[in-house]
Amino acid sequence: xxxxxxxxxxxxxxxxxxxLEDSGIECSIKNEYSSSxxxxxxxxxxxxxxxxxxxxxxxxxxxIIQDTLNDSSTGDEWxxxxxxxxxxxxxxxxxxxNKSTPRQFW
Length: 106
Ligand SMILES: [Zn+2]
What we know:
Elements: E1 2-6, H1 10-22, E2 27-30, E3 49-52, H2 55-69, E4 78-79, E5 86-87
Antiparallel strand pairs: 1-3, 2-3, 4-5
The protein binds zinc ion.
């Protein structure tokens, strides 16, 4: 198993897991429920992590993650109707407040 990504915001981690799975990459989350360990472990050790099967998958995953996180320049992001946060178009839920539906423009 190879660690592909970690972030203190679990919503970003879960969004990226969805993106990777949509791209056909098997992955799993570690530390999903470990926030109660904060204060005992170093904070970064409690961040949720995305793990993939092997190095080949890791290379693909890292590329997809980078493309996803750098996507704000494409203009395809959506604005959360609940908190107003800007999200990558790859994200199905708002990374900030966990709402699942992008604002409709009309
Ligand atoms: Zn939001």
